[in-house]
Amino acid sequence: MTADRPILVAGGGPVGFITALALARQGLPVHLFEAETRINDMPRAATTHAATLEMLAGLGMVEEVIERGYVEPLFRIWDRQSNSIVAEFDFRILKDETPYPFAVQCEQHKLAGMALRRLKDYPNATVEFSARVTALTQFADRVEATVESADGTRRIAGSYLIGSDGGRSTVRKALGIEFEGYTHPERFMILTTTDDLGIRYPGCTRNYITSPDAWFSVFKVSGDERGPLWRVLSATRPEQTDEELMNPDATERRLQDFMPKKSAYDIIHRNLYNVHQRVAASFRKGRVFLAGDSAHVNNPLGGLGLNFGIHDSMEVTTLLGKVIRREAPESVLDQYDLHRRPLNVEFVQQQTIANKKRMEEKDPAARQKDQDQLRRTAEDPALHRAYVRKASLLESVKKREAAAA
Predict the structure, then answer these.
(1) Domain carrying residue 345
(2) Which of 176, 201, 357, 398 is the most core-located residue (most Cβ within 10 A)?
(3) Structural domain contains residue 392
(4) What's the order of all strands across the beta sheet hosting 70-72?
(5) How many Å apart are CA 92 and CA 98, to the nearest integer?
(6) Could you read off the pLDDT of 145-173 as tens digits, one per residue?
């Protein structure tokens, strides 16, 4: 029986650790491999939406996420040229649909750490750091992963393998699955500061400032021992080099251009990265599944990528549990790719592409039309509700449930 062998998980980001925890809680043996020596704490995704909070509640994590994160029921879209709010959206309109009518700004490395600590309570879970999955081979009754570590190279057999090893996924490449889509010509920059940017954007900690020339977004995260932190996300020009963008004088000028102030900013972190809109041609091949960034990547506007990756995790672990416990035939695993991929295209790719287009729209007529529509949507209760149901991914979950019914 396949349950005699562990389910292998490649990659120890938040999706990988949450995947391992979801399996361990079902009593299934799981073995996770992470190439790095520890959880990566570089500033990356931080938004956790209502639909995801419901899933984390099922793993016994939601109380800690809320405690360690920053709860925000609002987000605002601004017009930079007029320095005015175009529309304000409030997740509290969903209070009769979810126990979590808000987003929580909790950095992804904290989510990974929470899941890792809980995994230590399960003797059926093994976690290896400094262990990289470099290849795999599939058989009729198992999958074998080649793992490289300080002790050398070895092969480990598992019943199934879940690749959550990031956008450059070794697992996806080993399966020969195309990563379809494109890369934006410009790169994005995130600057993190201890300065309280809430003074400039009071009353809301998630702000999207649209501009045909230089858009940016401002949001607050719970931070660390230094206290809450603010992040400023913006796009760079394709021709700009790392040297001219990342030096302290350049990043200071950048923040001063967005939000001028007399004193210098305390910038504690700078990050510059390529931005992709890509989806794997398939999320499954045989006994191997892709989840999170290994299956799909997108621009961060809207905070959807990490959330959808966690949704991947919950779906694949639920299906595997049913098959291994013989509650469902193995053919039920076909549902993973059948549903997850189209949902990603509809609720993540399309939304994030539209969000980016709105932020940077240069045509005055198109810009005005979009802003007028946003205002009408925010002012109409039914349209407002529909908008935030989609933004929170509650709509994607309901669509998946309807397909399963």
Answers:
(1) 2-181+277-404
(2) 201
(3) yes
(4) 47-48, 103-105, 70-72
(5) 9
(6) 999 999 999 999 999 999 999 999 999 99
